[in-house]
Amino acid sequence: MKPFLHRKEPSKTQIPEGEPTKRQTFSRLSRYMTRYAGQLLLVLVLLLFGTILNLAVPYLLGIGINNLSGPRDADALQRTVLSMVIAALFSWILMLWQGQVLAKLVMKGLYDLRRDIFNHMMPLSLSFFDRRPIGELISSITNDTEVIALFFRSNLGELLSQGLRFIFIIIVMFWLDWRLAIAALVITPLFAAFMSFLGGASGPAFEDLQQQVGELTGLMEETISGQRVVIAYDRQDEAIENFKEMSVAAMEAGKKALFISLLSRPGTLVLTNLDIALVALVGGSLTLRGLTDIGTVATFLQYTRQLAIPLSSFAGAVDNLFAAIASGERVFRILDEKPAIVDKPDAIPMPPIQGHVEFRNVDFSYVPGRKILKNNTFEALPGQKIGLCGPTGAGKSTMINLITRYYDVDSGDILIDGLSIYDVRQEDLRQQIGIVLQEPFLFSDTVLNNLRYARLEATEADCIEAAKRANAHDFILRLPEGYDTVLAERGSNLSQGQQQLLTIARMMVQNPRLVILDEATSNVDTQTEQKIQQALNRLMEGRTSFVIAHRLSTIRDSDMILVLKAGEIIERGTHNEMMANQSFYYNLFMSQFKGKLEGVAQVA
């Protein structure tokens, strides 16, 4: 198979130490239903009376048969038949009512589960999203919750109903004739052993199936999101081949899980038929010896056949049960994640930022033992523009990610206006920091709502004024509905430059106290870059700003430029100072402008 993008090989689920048992996982899932105790109690009451009325029908049938086999009483027979009809009718009504209540209960529980997953993911730190593919997370919110929904929606009510049926049948059997009851229940240990065998095989099979489906979903999300790159490099065939390979893996896992689950029904039918034959044999023997009557045997045959219904239901639900448990385990792995970045218990509100930023001996690593930043120290005064440059992978973006406290340092400290950012609340800190990234991100919503996203209480006039200052107002007015134009996903119906101007306008709506620009002009043409740079200059005016740039022309007017290499600040100063030193920055600058300078010299 040819390599495609950064596809990983399908991984087998590993059970870490302390992993909850399947019983614990199911118990945790069930709590999403049991929290609605009143509705659940109503379901159980309706099931109870519905089951009793349903089981009354075979009992009345036995009475009717005895009436026909002995002295006939037409009135008694008529009353028996009428009682059977009434019992069947009211049993159906109660079961229908129970189904409606249970459906509402299940939907509430699943709504709570989806809400809990999404709400729990939102505050998680970036390190969580760094190590979990987006497609896998989407699969947990959609596919896994739908598998859980399938079980609770289709099988939970059936299991409750058939469980009560099973209990009441046994009680009635022993009440009617203990000898026939024992004959009917001889098969139960065999059935229990059979179900235990299926359970042991089904659990890993369905867990592997859900793992394969999750990875397949991740591949689809990644491939479709990167379709522009796929087309650009003519890699459609490789994409199809990768999808085929992972689909085959999912299909094989599905075939194995389905085969195991399909064993349940024929096995249950064989055991049920053996049970009916045994009851008929014992019942016939007892009847011939005058120890029971035909009506009782007929009733037992009906109950024995009905005993197979809950047994078959249990067997039929086992695949959905284990699939739901496997999905539940994946979901709870997300819900059990803890934010890596947390406020101290005594964290204080962040006062209005004046812009004095200090790094003190900062070390940082994404992976323990592999330092990305090493012993970095610098100071930015209020209102200064700080440029950051250096080779790719030098640690520039990592440094600004630490200012916003997306990650915590390994050692050292970062201070803003004399306060350690680890002593203040994250929310207060980030509300005062504005970021414009290299890749702009816009939501599938109106232009106005995208601008207001930075400050929800902003008025329409605030947004329009910000758009004017960001050089975005004119092109917005040319859109079909102006500020009410709904953007496509990620703003794909706008040019790259227009998208970036909107993100700058959005930051102006925010009105931050500290500005961070991460190569904000690297993906646009020269004319658009001038418009963006004008907007950025207005944005940075009077504010401390950090600007990452590969185009050194965009930071040459900085009050201080930091040159990073292999995670360390190796040079600092103004553009003129470092050009005079003719060191690393000088060589970097000259390598970018060598062609232009030679061209100017030739013209001269």
Please give a structural write-up.
The chain is of the alpha/beta class. The chain folds into 2 domains: about 20-335, ABC transporter type 1, transmembrane domain (ABC transporter transmembrane region fold, Up-down Bundle); about 355-430 and about 545-604, Rossmann fold (3-Layer(aba) Sandwich), CATH 3.40.50. It is built from 20 helices and 10 strands. The chain has helices at about 20-35, 35-70, 75-120, 125-130, 135-175, 180-185, 190-225, 225-230, 235-260, 265-290, 295-335, 395-405, 425-430, 445-450, 460-470, 475, 495-510, 525-540, 575-580, 585-604; strands at about 355-365, 375-380, 385-390, 410-415, 420, 435, 515-520, 545-550, 560-565, 570-575. A hairpin with a 2-residue loop joins β9 and β10. The longest helix is centred in the first third of the chain and has 48 residues, at about 75-120. The two termini are about 55 Å apart. Mean pLDDT is about 80; it is low at about 1-15 and about 595-604.
Concise summary:
With 604 residues, this protein is α/β, with parallel strands linked by helices. It is 63% helix and 9% strand. Residues 1-17 and 597-604 have low confidence and may be disordered.
Question: How is the secondary structure organized here?
Answer:
Blueprint: H1 22-34, H2 37-69, H3 74-121, H4 126-131, H5 134-176, H6 178-185, H7 188-225, H8 227-232, H9 236-262, H10 264-288, H11 294-335, E1 357-364, E2 373-380, E3 385-389, H12 396-403, E4 411-416, E5 419-420, H13 426-431, E6 433-436, H14 447-452, H15 460-469, H16 473-477, H17 496-510, E7 514-518, H18 526-540, E8 544-548, E9 560-565, E10 568-573, H19 575-581, H20 584-603
Parallel strand pairs: 3-8, 3-9, 6-7, 7-8
Antiparallel strand pairs: 1-2, 1-4, 4-5, 9-10
